[in-house]
Predict the structure.
Amino acid sequence: MSEQAPGNPRNPKPGTVDFGYREVPAAEKSRHVRAVFDSVAGKYDLMNDLMSAGVHRLWKRYALSQTGLRPGQAALDVAGGTGDLAAGMAEQVGERGLVVLSDINESMLAVGRDRLLDRGLLRNVRTAIANAECLPFADSSFDCVTIGFGLRNVTDKPAALASMRRVLKPGGRLLILEFSKPVVPGLKPVYDVYSFSVLPWLGRRVAGDPESYRYLAESIRRFPDQPTLTRMMQEAGLEDCRCHNLSGGIVALHKGYRY
């Protein structure tokens, strides 16, 4: 683990951004992130189940309950990886609707496409390689945009928030499901031990890649806390922004609208 204490990282120097507790040139972060997810793509779903004891499915189910989607509407899942949120939204919009599963990582997108195909959901789902910071979709295209556990890996988060707002239709909503900061007294020390000891151990034993899971733990600590992310959403032009903590704040769902 880094010499820095969990949850107390340095601020990046000018021209650099965080990659876990390391500082890397801003132009290189996406390459480092891509390498992480190339490595973990094949075991990503299994590791999610092991790391969260299956609770990630409940977090995603709650996010899906907040989409507000109706049959015939359009939705975009950004950094959608293996497609859990996209699959749920595909069922919500029905055959007359459309869901786009996007990710910057081809390996993750390939796994997601295969999973959707296995579930018979590709009829109303399209896939697209896309950078969250500059989404290749027209303005006002989607009734709902989701990003689940992906924003912390983005280099320029304000640009991504602005890009996701741009593609929302007026009245559409953005949902950000992401690891956040524990708010229950006494939870943080336990969570730190789990993150920096258990996760790398699982990564070594199951995925053969402890470093990628150490990065994932570090990236969670570097991610903005709940009030900061809410403010960033407002600065990106989203309105009526609010946050709902899940599992004591280990995860939070942020919601904002484009009016």
